[in-house]
Amino acid sequence: MAGFYGIAKRLFSFPTALAAAVTRVMLPTLSQSGDERLERTARMLGQIALVCGLPLALVAGAVQPLISLVLGDRWLPASEIVVYGSLGMLLFASVASPINSFFLAEGRPNPPLLSVTAELLAGFGLVAVLIGGLEGAGIGIAISVGQLLAVAVLLAAVVPRVRAGAGTAARIALVTGIAIAAGQLLPVGNDVAGLLAALGLSGLAWLALAGLFARKPLFRVGGMVRSLLPGANR
């Protein structure tokens, strides 16, 4: 099972790397933000959820044919970790990481410490209980529940103005979960056609639902991305 978890970690590399980058960039930025610190942190919660949500929906929605084609069928059990752990990874990148940076910028390390402690206790406890019967799914559930608890600790400790930004992140988490379910429920084979079909359905479902439930933040992030493209300022 350790090997399957390693494969899942590779597939989760984008949100993990993004969360690490957010921590490196946001901590010095927020430390110098002064009165704008609250608003900047609140905005980042929804924006990071949008950036991470679509890649996670694509990977988890089409994870079986993706693993089968790239790594081989023997690694397919790792797909359960990815499917059930995607919510946790999205929460980690979009909510836990920015709020941890906010608390550190405020000189308050205790809430992040309590959050990590709660996550580890819940995660390891659930793995011990669930892995025997659910195997990979149990690991994924433990990841998501551990992050839910960690985020709950952080949101309970943070000021309401920052907490309000979690609303967009919650909507994107719901959108991402529905898009993943759409890809998973599509009856496809573990071949190129199945991969393309699952990617297409998950991606379209995510874009449609994000446009419906988070239109303004989606357009804002889209504008930010377009401004970074070559020739955007010409």
Fold and architecture overview:
With 234 residues, the chain is mainly α. The protein has one domain (2-109, 161-228). It is 84% helix and 0% strand. The protein has helices spanning 2-11, 13-31, 37-61, 63-70, 78-105, 110-134, 136-157, 160-163, 166-185, 192-213, 215-228. It is globular. The mean pLDDT is 83.
Helices and strands, with pairings:
Blueprint lengths: L1 H10 L1 H19 L5 H25 L1 H8 L7 H28 L4 H25 L1 H22 L2 H4 L2 H20 L6 H22 L1 H14 L6
Helix pairs in contact: 1-5, 2-3, 2-5, 3-5, 3-9, 3-10, 3-11, 5-7, 5-9, 6-7, 9-10, 10-11
Q: How many domains would you count in the coordinates? A: 1
Low-pLDDT residue intervals, each spanning 5 or more residues = none
Helical content stands at over 70%
First-residue to last-residue Cα separation: 52 Å
Mean pLDDT: 83
In terms of DSSP E residues, the strand content is under 5%
| Broad structural category | mainly alpha
String of helices and strands? HHHHHHHHHHH
How many helices does DSSP assign?
A: 11
The major pleated sheet works out as: none
Q: Globular, elongated, flat, extended or rod-shaped: what is the shape?
A: globular
Radius of gyration from the alpha-carbon trace, in angstroms: 18 Å
Number of strands: 0
Keywords:
single chain, 234 residues, mainly alpha, 11 helices
Concise account of the structure shown:
The longest helix is centred in the middle third of the chain and has 28 residues, at 78-105. With 234 residues, this protein is mostly helical. Helix content is 84%, strand content 0%.
